[in-house]
Amino acid sequence: MIAPRDRMPLPRKFFDRPVLDVAPDLLGRVLVRTTPDGPISVRLTEVEAYDGPNDPGSHAYRGRTPRNAVMFGEPGHVYVYFTYGMWHCMNLVCGPEGRASAVLLRAGEVVEGVELARKRRPSARNDRELAKGPARLATALEVDRALDGTDACTAGETPLRILTGTPVPAEQVRSGPRTGVAGEGGNGEVHPWRYWVADDPTVSPYRAHVPRRRRS
């Protein structure tokens, strides 16, 4: 049986492009998390681009480390990081191997496995909030560092894969500054590299960067 086109995995060449081309093109694509209890699928509605060596906001800006090594590998793989001592966030690696750019998956609509997502996100007030924000998305899909390096382009059995879905028309795509990324030094306000689906209720609220105050 041949799967419908919207259920076909995105090919690796999709990700082997500049990150600013890949990021908006990910909107409307479907991320599938395979679990022992069944699949959970999320239609992506918000993403952010991070351009490696050209981007002070990127984890790869200062070079390769054990934490960000996946970003320097083959495009189409999943980069997962742990932040604030409590949350995981996930990215999809883009561009040629060795260059280390990636797209942060910020938000989406759970379109399959809603009950499973609810069990992982019991604090969500409604289904629109299940994956509304990068940490919430990762939690709803039960993603942690154990999945760092997963190949999302394979059609075989894999815990994470990205499907063709239904791309969002260009006129419905919006862009603006990245959430929580510094201005001039961190390319937050300077580069509007956050992309989202216009008027979609699952898109997370924008929060500007707030500098940390030094203790006197």
TrEMBL record:
Per its UniProt record, what InterPro entries does this chain match?
A: Formyl_transferase-like_C_sf (IPR011034), MPG (IPR003180), MPG_sf (IPR036995)
Please give the name of this protein: Putative 3-methyladenine DNA glycosylase
Coiled coil ranges (UniProt) are: none
Enumerate the UniProt keywords alphabetically.
Answer: DNA damage, DNA repair, Hydrolase
Q: Which domain of life is it from?
A: Bacteria
Which EC number(s) does the record attach to this protein?
3.2.2.-
Molecular function via GO: alkylbase DNA N-glycosylase activity; DNA binding
Q: Name one GO biological process term.
A: base-excision repair
Q: Which organism is it from?
A: Streptomyces griseofuscus
Q: Which family does it belong to?
A: Belongs to the DNA glycosylase MPG family.
